[in-house]
Fold:
Amino acid sequence: MNAWLAGATALCAGLVPCAWVCLRARDHFDRLVALEMAAMLVSLAMILLAEEMGRPLFLDLGLALALLSFGGGLVFARFLEGWV
Structure:
């Protein structure tokens, strides 16, 4: 196990609190923050796995996930704006 894989494993372990907040939070905005944090953790884990495996396709996939999750979060926040 090298440093890249250990870092990716640590980032994936950070998904557990995000999932707990997404499932248990009463406020919609807390759920949105947890969702954005989970997307950031997954995209960073994919970038670390791309470096560990030497596959540049995973790097492109991680960067695309980061960009699309930010846009999706903005759309979701706009949707939640009507509920406030």
Summary: Helices lie at 3-13, 15-24, 28-53, 56-81. The first helix runs from residue 3 to 13.
